[in-house]
Amino acid sequence: MAVPFGLFRASPANPNPSSADLSDNCSLVATGHITKGAIISIAGDSAWASSPDLTISPAEMKVMADIVAGNQTAIDKTYGEGLYVGGQRYVLTRADDNVYARSGRDGVAITASKAAIVVGIHGETQVAGNATSVVAALADHLKGTGY
Fold first, then answer.
1. What GO CC terms are in its UniProt record (predicted)?
2. What values do phi and psi take at 63, rounded to 5?
């Protein structure tokens, strides 16, 4: 399934988008709050879009899908064993409407829309709350467009 807009680059009309601009054909990364990101199917069986330097394995996608679906067994296992995204292990700290995990000062925010899961990874110089807000805003935008 094709994603209806460019997610990982700014548009010429909006070279420096903010989280409020997510519906204007811009990017998670261009907000400055995310270093790399992806959108995967809600079933966790395919990647729709991702940053060039982020590869999420099928097993990692499935775990994310189980967590956002509220599978308590998967959530408990992930709290104990960690959440892997792009081969990097993160410690799960939150699993409700927004999922958040940390690896040192880096983190990953995950939020589901109707048909997709938005994944945003932030670096140590970025604020976790801002990264979560950007990911949630994109998921809300996708919900509004039927995704």
1. cell cortex; cytoskeleton
2. -60, -45
